[in-house]
Amino acid sequence: MHTRHCRPIARRLRLWLSSLTLIALLIALLHILHQPAKHVDQHHHEQHHLHHRPPLNASKLALLIENRPSPLLAPLMLHFIATLPPDWPFLFLGSHASLAAISASRAVRAHASSGKLGLARIPANMSTAGPEMISRFLTSLWVYEALLPASVEWLLLFQTDSVVCANARLSVDDFLGYDWVGAPWNPRGQWGGNGGLSLRRVSTIVDVLRNQVRPRGGEPEDVWLSERLAAHPSANVANGSVSLLFAGEVNPGEPERVLPPPMGAAGANRSSDGGGSHGLVGGIDDWRDGFYEPMGYHTGGSGAFLHSGIWGTPELREHIWKYCPEIKMTLAMDAARYVPGKCGARWT
């Protein structure tokens, strides 16, 4: 009798233990699946991240042309990629040496693999060796009709002495309504701006180049093109005041103004209409008050030319270091020059 009673109990016990084991295995599996991976293949992680980017806009292209190898190429390119709106694709045209320099960066190679960044040689039939050759390159109809993708309508051209500021409240997309915009030569002028950091409408430039040819040794490409775009019947070129919002180089623009919050209202909750320049908030943005803050900067001379209107006082320079610290990448800076006394270049 005792044995007969134990057998059903033993069977039930075995079934119960099996169920517990299965439940424990399921719990362990769920726990493993919800744990963050501690040993993730780096390449797989990068590809997963890059494949989840917003789609690229084929009508836009940011272009850097540089035949000189430089350690600046990769960090500058990566900064522009991070700062421009995410739908902008990029193209780097370089020499064998400059392509090797920029491709040494793993982050650059990851963007190239994702399709965000194109890396290509400067065509053999073209040259960028010096200002005249660059002007010939950028006024060649072949470049716009054959070299650039046919879908490109807006071309953001930048050089190694230019930068877009991460703290800027304006985006390059805010200027897409213009056929040409760059740091203005005349802040009160109706057209024209430096090409070293410039936004250009390709279709209008193509129309100009189909009807006119820049003479060899003529005006620099940015002067020659912007002058003809200003005379084009359908072009909309940015005037001096708009261009100053886009980029600073020689002439300063209007300083930012921070207004105090209205009585009885918290400054942080204020609408942009109730604030100062672009809705600056009193108590938060006070450090911006009284200073010119363009979307980006172009210095010229590979970072060697700093004009007094932008850079001429310690206060102006100190504010730029706060507002746009990334511009330090583009400048030939040696901190030892700013140390007083007989302190040498080597510090201990």
UniProtKB/TrEMBL annotation:
Keywords, comma-separated and alphabetical: Membrane, Transmembrane, Transmembrane helix
The keyword Transmembrane is annotated on this UniProt entry: yes
InterPro entries: DUF5672
Pfam families: DUF5672 (PF18922)
Residue ranges constituting the DUF5672 domain according to the UniProt record: 120-252
Membrane-spanning parts: 12-33
Identification of the protein by name: DUF5672 domain-containing protein
The organism of origin for this protein: Escovopsis weberi
